[in-house]
């Protein structure tokens, strides 16, 4: 049973850590609700304008899990146009 993860490196329009945490919390909570994946901020917690988020899912079918995480990336691009995706990767753990 494959475990598939997606790492997103984001450039955020925040000037304070409070603004950053608000943006990150919104993205993480909405993605969890909409796609039923595990989500967390993994790195750069104290860097005001950047964030690294990780989303993980488990499925019987690798292609389904990869497609689901591609949908997560597309959702972030569509729903948060103020957030720039600098880089992302999807891989089997």
TrEMBL record:
SUPFAM superfamilies per record: Hypothetical protein TT1725 (SSF103007)
Domain of life the protein comes from: Bacteria
InterPro entries referenced in this protein's UniProt entry, alphabetically: DUF503, TT1725-like_sf
Secretion signal, residue range per the UniProt entry: none
Transmembrane segments: none
Matches recorded under Gene3D superfamilies: TT1725-like
Name listed for the protein in its UniProt record: DUF503 domain-containing protein
Organism: Ardenticatena maritima
